[in-house]
From TrEMBL:
Protein name: Cysteine dioxygenase family protein
Keywords from the UniProt entry: Dioxygenase, Iron, Metal-binding, Oxidoreductase
Family assignment from sequence similarity: Belongs to the cysteine dioxygenase family.
Entry keyword Oxidoreductase: yes
Pfam families documented for this protein: CDO_I
Superkingdom, taxonomy of origin: Bacteria
GO molecular function annotations of the record: dioxygenase activity
Keyword Phosphoprotein: no
Amino acid sequence: MTSATTAPGAFTAARTTDRLEALLAGLREDVERGLPPDLTAHLVGERLAPHLGAPDLLTDEQQQSDPTQYRQHLLHAEHDGSFSVVALVWLPGQGTSVHDHVSWCTTGVHQGQERERRYRLLPAADGAARLVATTDVLDKQGEVCGFAPPGDIHRVWNAGPSTAISLHVYGADISRLGSSVRRVYQLPADC
């Protein structure tokens, strides 16, 4: 097992809790079923939800923020590369760019709240694709969502007054890839 703590993209070692170990065992069962990505993301969400908000899920170190950007703590990367678990810690106002992902993903809010704006690409008159905002979501503690490419373009940020922490389970080895982001999108003026 690999554990890590850092800003987005780099990883260093950290310890895990008994609750996290129990969650990982369940996630391993769900992922090993070999179901399509969207169904796997759904099952992982059901497995993740009961652990969200539990005070014994993360260590103090895994809840530490960074004053300059959201902070990524790699909690686990499965030895065969089939999934990774990451805790993201967001101070008020911190967020991501508009992006999509290298694999299926399930997220759950452990503490606080997160805002998410979802997008899709539509064909434009000139033949190029145009990014269009489709949905705004407020995710509160205990809520989960899952998605799989294509259709996984979004931006996430902490619009609340306090620190937010979310857990992200990816169907890829984030310790090897360094990020779950496949592509970053530039927003048009009207998004």
